[in-house]
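Subject: for your reference before the review

Hello V.,

The reviewers asked for a structural picture of the protein, and I figured it would be easier to keep everything in one thread rather than splitting it across files. Below is the amino acid sequence we used in the manuscript, unchanged from the supplementary table.
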Amino acid sequence: MTPHREWFSEYEKYNGNVFLGDDSPKKIMGHGRVKLLLNNGRIRTLPGVLHIPGLARNLISVSKMADAGVKTVFEKDRCKMIREAMVLMRGV
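And here is what came back from the structure prediction:
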């Protein structure tokens, strides 16, 4: 989920709501694909990203990534997302 409409390479309007962890509702305005430029210069495309202008931060669903065959490993001060033997992304 992201509040950044300009990040979408493909976009379709959508009318819906999502409830955050504090039970506050946020309006979903659209969904599509977002291309991420990683620190190493690689580009990763995330499908099924929701456009929610009311968000303060970007959110990624670990369970949605798991549904796509991506394993998320959390360590003390970082995490990484892995599919088979390939590290797709790292984060702090």
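For the response letter, the relevant points are probably these. The mean pLDDT is 92. The longest helix spans residues 62-67.

Happy to draft the paragraph if you're swamped.

O.
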